Each structure stands twice: as structure tokens, then as C-alpha cells.
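Continuing the series of single-chain predictions for the mutant panel. This is the parent chain; the variants come on the following pages.
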Amino acid sequence: MRLRFVEVRADLGTMTTPRWRYGSGFLIGGRSLLTAAHVVRDAISVTVRGADKVILSAVHDQAMLGDPRRMDLALLEIPELTDLLPFIPVALVNRDTTTGDFINGCWAVGYPYYQEINRDSSMRWQRVSAHIQGYIPPLSSLGDELGLLSLHVNQVPAELAEPGQSPWSGMSGAAVFSGEMLLGVITEHTKRRGASEISLTPLDRLIDSRTAPDNASLWWKRLGVSDPGNLPLLPSTRKNRAEPAYHATMRVIKGRTKILRDREDELRRIKEFATGGMSKRYLMLIGGAWAGKTALLAEAVFAMPASVDVVAYFLSARESQASQEQFLAAVVPQLAWLLNIDTPPTANIHDFRDLWERASKKAAKDYRYLLLVVDGLDEDLRIGGHSVAALLPTEFVNRHARVLVSSRRYPELPGDVDSMHPLRKARVMQLLNSPNAIELKILAEQEINALLPVEFIETPGADLPFRVLGLLTAAAGALSVSDLTAMTEARAHAVRAFVTYYAARSLERIGPANNYRYQFAHQTLLELCQRHPDLGGDEHYREKLYEWAEHWRSREWPIQGLPSSCTPYYLLDSYPAALAGDPANPNLRPTSPRRLKDLVCDYRWLTATIECIGIDSARAAVRTAKELNPGDDDRLDNVQRIVESGLSHFPVSAVVTGDGRVVSGGLDGTIRLWDAGKPDDTGTVLGYHNGPTLTVAVTSDGRVVSGGHDGAVRLWDLAKLGDPGLVLGRHNSTVRTVAVTSDNRVVSGGLDGVVRLWDANVPDDRGYEVGRHSAVFALAVTSDDRVVSGGLDGAIKLWDPSVVGDPGREVGRHNAVRALASTSNDYVVSGGLDGTIRLWDADRPDDSGYLIAQYNLGPASLAVTDDGQILVTTGRAINRLSLARL
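Parent structure:
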């Protein structure tokens, strides 16, 4: 990086006085130099020199020069550079910000006049670099016709003795960054503003219609930007950023508590603590089981003043969400989000401490406050004997960064909390039990006792309360009506009536309306049932839970298709913690280390969990399994190495390029390029989606098309590693499949049910709607560029995109279509969730299809080779079928 910062010297000719003009520049990527236009304007030659003292010539007569009166930017080529440099990421300044935030962490490197040195009188003067820091107030200099911004610097150079000479002279053209993002170049210094303020020309001059040149698209190309409309804005606002997944959980918890009553004084004191109004760094809320601690903290999270940034985690043993690993998986992404950086791939204790330190320092620097909220320390499962309390920060807890926790009255702090930990000296706020909560507690316990008859009743269905409550106790998590119906073997309407009516006080409903799940309404109710000899004391319910999980394991944890055919969410988000149990209290929460190890070592389960729940949840389960299964285990070690090392790519789609390399899309959101001839190749990242990348394809000219959870259809150039990618267009939901026609048009299908056609050469093309399904799972293209699609509705449809408004024709049908392929003679091969592989003649409307093969489950993918072989990926193997033998 240091060799990219160069001194620029422009020769104005012997007839000009002074002959030389000095400035600064930056090698932005390729062989391009970025500087200020006024530095190189009217020059007869331009040279640059960096830290290596090597002098290079710039091609100034073919430079792209902006008008210094409108856009003081210039791009020149340095042909003597031997290697092409990767491009630097670019951001735009948000002049429409509504937060009032400054762009902090700004810096630049240039060669100003005040950095001239002469250590030996016999040597000539030379300039060395200056590295400056500062911030940009985006709402300053409004009304400046040049659109300049102010950079306020921390280091102020001394005034020079020469009259009229600015100490910043020569700094013009220096690139200005915020973090790693390039914003613009330094342009001028107005002395009346003082030595601490210099002006810069932002790169957004290239998109402003009043200042942008006619060839702005060529400028962006030379800057390495293919889609300027998709550049990040600074200062970033939370509206423009994907928030951490745990924020949704925080809103759910807040929603459960409804209206907070009679807690105005406690809420006021918490706000006072969060904004530095108390001397103690830790505040602990102590109260009984029904004191309303969770309700108060959930309210506090969303009621803090605007100057307070909140990071939170709510331990919940009844949801099996109460371990160190789950705490880190929730909190580390929140800290990274506050810092506006990518979440670390590991999310371990070291990452937590590092991010906490950085967030604490940033809060102090920005005159803000950071509050870590941790509710329910008494519910900590302490897997492996390690507590969440022991992870809480001991350093960088000060007036601007504080910690708020809650616990019941009687449990002592865990033994692994250091004797000098500030938590042991926390200020305590006692909470009296809420009269409303006490009444609910009594009613809920009475309800459970009333539902469980003390004498034998032979009436059919009389034991349903035991079966439902027993399974919820064994699960220690939320189960749906269909989950409970499958395990109790009762009728769905009877289970639904029980959980929604008869046990309405004891159970609470969580989750979206199309997938309600039920769990105990309070931890004490779960504990009551755990101690009951015919609920928690009956191993039959745990065996039922294991048997049910084994059923889904045998089906390879499907996550695509009809809701009834998809793996229940409980088995992905809560089951691992239920298997971990509580080693310190196995009577209430039995532990099953071997089952947990077998679960996390099942790559199909890992893939389903990462796609549906997230990599952090899968990583937490793997770490817990390792903790409970000490010693060498090749399977477990390999899985842990994958999820901890950042190799959590987990390819879900792959395609071979024309030169034999492999491109894959993974659940970590990356698109990677692999050399098939190198077994140890770790892959080169081509680009990213915001969420899992679920499908990839390759055009005939070597570009890569990808689609993913973010609904975007993106295009990447294999010849330009580091290329930021081009957004072809978007669906309203997840893109599950893409394909490419012979003339490089892109076809995409999404869960919004739309099949779209895009022009790969038109960015942000609105796309042409080819047709619709209820949800599109698979696409194929015939040799004459007709489109074959299939989806959740089970129909296989054929479309001709060359015919506007083509209604399409149904070729065949499955119960739901999972995979499609086309042969060289335009036969269609399809695979359905019914497990069948069928062959259809695309040109025969009455073709009833030919059954090629039958499997227990539908194929994950289909491909037809040039020699007429059908490759069927079933999840556990790749099978080869020969068309010639049909």
C-alpha cells in the first residue's frame, strides 16, 4: 500500500515561471494514477516518485482531466508499472444524511511543502510524505459551486515564513480515505479557514449531473467501479446497512413483554447509568423470578437516548439459548455492525475483546455511549463449566462504555468469574416482584397442575397434556403444532386447541404467523415441569425427540419445498443446545455428547443450519460439541477446522468454466474460483452477496452470473479479480436459480415466483418477465434458447423469450420440481421432490414423460454431459445415468 502514495511533478516548460508544479497522487488500480486536475493541467510532462525513489513517467497527453472549476480530478496512465494493481474500494459522501454524524477515521498521505527537508547543505531539498488524520462534516460547505468538502485535520503544520505560501502546498491530489474506502482527493487550502482545514473534491462529482463529464462511465471504469449506483454511502446510516440478525430477536423479546407498567423510575436510572451518570462501570438488576427483569431490559434496549449504542443478549434456558458460544454469536456481529466493519469469521472471545475495545474507544472519540445489556445470568447453561459472566469485559469499561446485567437474587456469581472482575463490584438495583407478574405466575402454575391429572383417566386423549408438556420439557425449546403432532401422534386440531386454549397462560407463541411455535412462558414453568416425575423424569419423551430428529436426518435435513417437507426450525436452532443439556445438573437437563457430535458432523445438517439460521449458530453448536467431546476425533476436528478457519464457504452450487476452473457459490455469501488441478487450492473470492449465494452460472465469454438470498442477480468478470461486480437486477425475494442463453442473456428464477430475462450488458436492467410459478426452484435453457422452468407448483414449463407475451406451455409435472437440465436434442430431464427423475420431449405437448430413476429424495441438481450421461446429485452421492440405455 505504501508504494501507491506518490509525489507528482508536472513540468510546465522552460518558458513558464515557476517551471515545476508539485502535487500528490495515488495509484488507484490497474496502471492508473489519481490526482487533482489543476496539478497536471498545461504540463508538457508528468513524473511520479514514491517511497521506493523510483521515478516513473505518466502519459499526460492522454490523461482524463476534469475542469478544475467544476470537478478537480485527473486520471493518468503509468505504462512503466509492470504489474496491474488491484483496485481500491470506493465510497460516496452522503450529503443527505439525517443523522448529523461526521465521517470519522479519515486520513490521507501526500507530499506537502512543510515536509521539505535538507539534512546536508550539499544536497538539494526533497519532500517526504505526511500522513494526516481527521474527519469530514458532510453538511459543511453547502452552496459551494465546486461541491468541495472540508477535511478537518488533527495535525496542524506551523505557519511558513514565506508570505503567501501555504504549508499545505503540494498536498493537492492526495487521496482521502475513510477507513479503507476512497472518498476523493485534496484540492485546495483556504488560509482564512485556518491551517486545520483543507478542502477535497469528492468522487461523487462524477455522478452529479451538474459536474459529471460526458464520459463519466469511462471514469468509473478507470476507477474500477462497474456500478456507481451501488457504492456505499458515508456516513453510513442504519437504514442503508443490513442489521445484525439478533436485532430481530430483540424486537421479538420486546414484543412479548407488551406494556411495561410502574417501572418509570428504574428506566430513568438505567438511562442515567448508560450516559455516564453513575460512578460504577457495571449495574446489576437483582430480582425474583417474576420481578420483570427481562421486560425492563427489553424496554431499556429500545428506550435509550439517541446518543447510546446498545449491544444486547438475553439468556433463555427454556429456549436453549444460554451459553458462551451463543452469546458470542449474537454480540460479536452487533459490535461489528456498530463499527461498520464485516463480522469476523470466527466470532470468538478474542474477536469480542478486540471489538469491544474498538467500540469503546470510538464511543469516547465520537462523544457517544456504548451499553452492553446481558439479561438472565442466572439462566446460564454453563456448558463445559464456562459461564457467560466470565466473558464480560474487564477493560475499556468507562464513562462511555458500560455493562448492564440482570440475575435472580440467590445464585452466586459463577466460579470462573475472576475475583477482581468489575462485575463483583457492580452497583446493584433491587427489583421488587411485579404484582401483575406474580398473579400471572400463580395462574400459570395452577393451569399446569390442573392440566396434569393426579389419577388415571382412561378417556381417549386424556394423556395429551402429558405428551405435549413432556415433549416441550425434553425439547427445552419452541415446537410447532406440526412438530408436536408428529411426535404425539395426536390429531393436529387437538394439539392446536391444547397449546392455544387450554395452556394459554403456561405457553407462549413465538415466530412468524406462517410458522408459529410454542414454548413455556417463563423459565420457572420449564423448571417446574423438569422436576415433575412424569414429565422431566420420563425418558420416554427424550427418546421420542431423538426418534423424530433421526427421521429428519434420514431425509437429509431438506430445507426446500412444501413447508411440510422442510426440516423443522427447532432441529436447526435449538436442538443442539438441548443435546448439550446441563452437565452440572444432568437430572434436570440430561446431556448427550455423542448425539451432539453426530449431529454437527452431519454436513447436510450443517448446510441446512447455515442457510436457514446462520454460520454463527452452526459454529456455536460445533464448539459446544468439541467442548463436550474432549480428545482427538477426526470428524469433529475437521468440521471445527472448517467453521473456525473461515472456510465456511459450504458450496451449494458450482459450475465449470470454459478453461476447466470451478466457480462455486456458498452459504457464506462468497463466489469463489478454484483451480481443479490444485487439490489444496483454498479458492479466490470473486465477490459477495448479502447472504448465502445459492446459484452460479458462466457465460460463453467467461463471466460469472450469481444469485442469492439478497434477491440480487450479479455479474462478475473472471479476468478482473477484485472486480466489485455488476448488479444486473433484482427479484423481490431469494434468487434460487440462474441460467445463461447462447447469446449471453441471463435467466433467473426466484422465490417470488418470477422467471426473468436480463441483458448482461445493461446494468440495473428492469428485466423481462418470462413467466411465473408459485416459487421457482430450477431453470434450464434448450439449444434454441427456449427457457424451461420448474417450481413449487410442480409444473415444468417451456417459454420462448423471443415471443413477447408467450403464455408458455406445460411440458410435464412433479409434486414439486427441484432440478432441471436440457439435452443437446432438447429433451428435458427433471427431478422432483417425489424422488423421481423423468425425461420429457419438449416438442411434444402430449408427452407423458419417461421415468428414468426413483430415489428416496429428490435430486439436489441435474446435469447432462456431452456424451449423453445424466449426473444426478442426491446429497450423499453423484450418480451417473446413461441416456443411451433408455
